[in-house]
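Record format v2
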Amino acid sequence: MLDAIFNVTLAHYLVLATILFVIGFVGVTTSRNVIRVLMSLELMLNAVNINFVAFNNHLNPVLDNGSFLLSGQAFAIFILCVSAAEAAVGLAIVIALYRQRATVDMEQFNLLRG
Amino acid sequence: MTTWLTENVWMVPLYPLAAFFLIVLIRAFTWNAEDESVRKGTRTLSMLLTIAATLAGLIHTVPLVGALLAGTLERTEFNYPWIQAGAFQLSIGYLVDSMSVMMLLVVTFISLFIQIYTHGYMKHDPGYCKFYAYLALFNFSMLGLVLATNLFQMYIFWELVGVSSYLLIGFWFTKPSAAAAAVKAFLMNRVGDFGLLIGILGLLVFTYGWWQQHADQYVLLSFEGIAALAPEVGLFIPVATLTLISILIFMGPMAKSAQVPLHTWLPDAMEGPTPISALIHAATMVAAGVYLVGRVFPLFEMSSTAMAVIAVIGTITAVIAATIAIVQVDIKKALAYSTCSQLGFMVAAMGCGAFAAGLFHLFTHAFFKAMLFLCSGSVIHACEDEQDMRKMGGLFRKLPVTGATYLIGCVAISGLFWTSGFWSKEEILIGAVDFSPAIFWTLAVTAGLTAFYMFRSFFMTFGGQYRGETHVHREDPVMWVPLAVLAVPSLAIGYLLTGTDLLGVHIPAFGDMIVPPGVEGGAHHAAEHHAAAGALSHEAIALISMALGYGGAVLAWLMYAGPLKALPERVRRMASPLYIFFTRKWYFDELYGAFVRRVYLVFAEGSAAFDKGIIDGLVNFTGHSVMGTGAALRQLQTGRAQTYVAVIFFGVVVLSLLLIYWQL
Amino acid sequence: MPSYYLSVLIALPVIFAVLVALIKPNEGAKNVHFYGVGASVIIFLFSALAWNMGALPPYEEYNWLPSLGIKYAVGADGLSLTLVILTTFLLVMAAVASITNITKRVKLYYGLLFLLTTAILGVFLARDMFLFFLFYELELIPMYLLIAIWGGPRKDYAAIKFVLYTLFGSVFMLAAILALYFNALNNGAPLEGAFLFENIRAYIPALTMGSQILIFLGLFVAFAVKLPVVPVHTWLPDAHVEAPTPVSMLLAGILLKMGAYGMFRFCWEFMPDAAFTLAPWIAVLAVINIVYTAGVALVQKDLKKLIAYSSVSHMGFVLLGLAAMNPAGFNGAVFVMFAHGIVSAALFMCVGTLYVRTHTRQLADYGGFGSQVPTIFYFFMFMSMASLGLPLLISFASETLVFYGAFTSEFFNHLFVLPGGLNFYWNMQIATVLSAIGIIIGAAYLLWMLQRVFFGPLPEKWNRLPDASLSEVFVLASLAALVIVYGFHPQLITRHFEPDVTRVAQHYLETYPQQGVAEVSPSQTPASPIDTAMIRPAAKELVTHE
């Protein structure tokens, strides 16, 4: 039993990522506060990062010359960059929105309503 | 000289057309002129232009008539291609022969005097110039009709006289009744024209090959061609179809010459100024129908059924109109029904095959009926626009010339003594007796009725005591001189044209001059018909018609001026249903009114409702259903980004599952 | 005549549209009207050059999108030229009419008017099917804006309806054009110039009869919307009622002719086999068009709607003439296009003159105008008379040709077998007789309209109406002059298109058998009484095998 817990396999990472992703997803879809939505989004992105790194570790691809291929990690880094940029732009938009509407309530932002 | 005049006869209609355009031009520049002298000048100029145009036409015509009488008139035809499409070509041109010269004389002569008379009658009307312009337009149309070389050209001018008549009936268009009468006249004539057009087309479609074969000889649909075609028309058209085509063509004359059942516009047309009633609705235009029948006579002759139909319709018209005329109290309406009745005589004559007789009556009738109408105009003018004969009476003393000429007209139309009406009606009766005794007796009795109602109107207007309130004006020379002039032919022209010598010049008989196209040398002359007549001799017919005529006249005198003055009232009470039936004009108007309301308008309303409801409804329904679909779908577009995220997420999940489990 | 004459003619209005836009913004409306009218006169005079030179203007052809085989090709035959002249002449008339009718945003108005002109000229002159389609669609945009900006109270509805209707038709046209294009390519046509008229046309016989009919129908539907043909006509009354007067004049005068022109050129000239097969049904549509819409016109309460429906009714004569398929019928159809262009434009002008004075178009509000506005009255009456086919006026000449053509057309004689023994024949003769009823109803609604508007006593409230102004008289008098001149002497106009149109008809006469023309031949001389069978044998045969 303990062995199953402490002998960390790919499945553990995937379960963790799934839990994070679901928490993030629920946060994104149910939060009324924009800041919380952005934060939940970060959670989802990070869940993906975990998946990338975990799979890269699991598959452990080796090139012909013996060096490791770290494309999963590279993607994770890319995503970190993007999420940083996204957080910056997102927060800027939130501030702009707040200046306009004096609220950060998602329910109020329904201009796309048909 | 005569040759030149013959070849340039196209100028005759163009004189009035030029006058028309000149008046329009002059009016266009002076219609709102303030200056009194300019306005007066415009009026005088309009009158002079119109009269000069007609006079020029008359002067142009007289030598031709001379040539006709002298027997030197050459039949001349000229055609100009009017429109063409491939081998198909329609022409207009002019045709000079005995018939057209006769009609030219009638139209220009009567027009001239009516135009002079108009000056007196319309002097105080604000539309004086317009009236002369319309008169000129009418003259152009009528003369063009007379000179037509083919059925198509006839149709052109046929409609043009119709529209002139429309304009002139509706001359006082601020009066609703005049406006309605104008529309009615036009529409009823349209119905006739519809038949005429279809008839012409029908004739064309069957014989198109023949026309193409003879394209170098005859212009399409030319009267000459029709005359040449007629003997062999049976090769192309089955007899039943020919009858149908003939009757369709005859629908044109039926409307134009006010034959039952398309006659009801003519009495209503009396809403127009009286000179118009005299010119268009008595003397010339309404006779155009008879003229057309004369032109296509050879074709009609090929179908005995069609001829019988024409004869019967003419007879019925003569009777119905005469019965209505008996009970009219409006002097112009009485005259209108008498016109209708006389036109019935002419048409019946045509149907009986008495070609020359019909045209002869047309010729004589034009003079005395125009005169009668002008007399009525004179009376109406004198009585300050009163038309009800019950409010007249005793006018002979105040209007002696009018009274005398009216009496002459009555005598002439009743066929008494040796006046012109006697000779022409005689010819008709001779023609009818050959054709059918029933028609003969009906027409003879109707002739008696004619005498009765004409003298009735005379005695009601001129006899007895004056019953009106208004002051009676005196006659104006410009009005009575035309009357006096017209009285001469009314009296004499019939006798002259029976083959007499006048001042040493031999005047041939009418029937010898006017022969149906395609027939050489007067084979249709009534006298020859008469030779074949077995039932009644010429003299017997003359006696019968004279006796009936005198009888009618004397009865009218007895009832309206003589000792039996109480009789009309008693007859009216005794025969009240019949009386009402006649005063309601045999309920034709009611019938047509019901037809228009129940059928015509219902069709139109139905179409409009269909258009608006069904067709446009369908269009709008398409639009609305698209809009509705959009409205339903827009509910999905909540505008909440989080919902979209959820949908995307589950969408991806579903797609992944599909991919994984169903290997899509 | 320089070889780029036609291109200049097409481009000229656009150049003027740009120039009008360059007029300084605060220029007075009166001056803008002056420039606009001047420009339209220049366009008219320039197009009149082609009219008087005898020979046809040169054909122009340039590569445009070679990868698809699309060329810029313009050319003209007599038919095109007639319609081009009609277009530019009516443009002048519409421009002059605008002086009293258009008061706001005049610059934009003239810009769109000239853009519209270019599109219409392009339609009439294009000799490449893609180019034709392009111009045909291009016309929609300025027309939409002209209605939607200067229109009446329901202008949005009317403008959208107009555009959607036309686009509905255009879908079919595009499909048909592409079908023809690929047909040409599949049958070995070179890619270069694959859209050219003569190229498209040359490969049409390669199509099966079924596809020809389908393509014919596609094109027919597209042009039927424009013509318009019942039941796709209901955009027209709405568009007319809402459009300002000059736009109505162009709409009735020219835009409808685009449909008629396309129909004649593509459906009848290019696809005679399909046209011949479908002629009986076209005749049915023609009769419905003439009689039904005349009935609808009779009970309209809105004056302009009445005239609009009469327009639809008259376009039925175009269909009738086309269904006749003989020289008289085709020439009549084309002549009706021209005649109706003049007369209907004038009638709409007349309606406009009344509207600017009274601001109502309801017949119930009118009455007794004859004595108050005599000039308008005479012109209105004259044009109504022209419209109802008074002889020696232009419509009569054209409708006469149609009637004579239709009645003498004997290409088909169908026996429809209905349940209950209600069999009936359907041929052009019957169609013509039924259509002729339309001219009775036509007279009825126009005369009744005149009676209600002009006759009778004048209501108190209208006794201050001013009579026609100089510009209105100019427009009406110019149109009236044409109506008279071409009515008296129709060959002045027919000689321009007659050879081209007759050539098309000649093909029908030579290719297809005529049913039961009464031929004169000695061998046929029957003994009397005459048997129908001997006169019209072909008709009888047809009956037996149907």
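The longest helix of chain B spans residues 588-634.
Strands of chain B lie at 76-85, 88-96, 500-502, 505-507.
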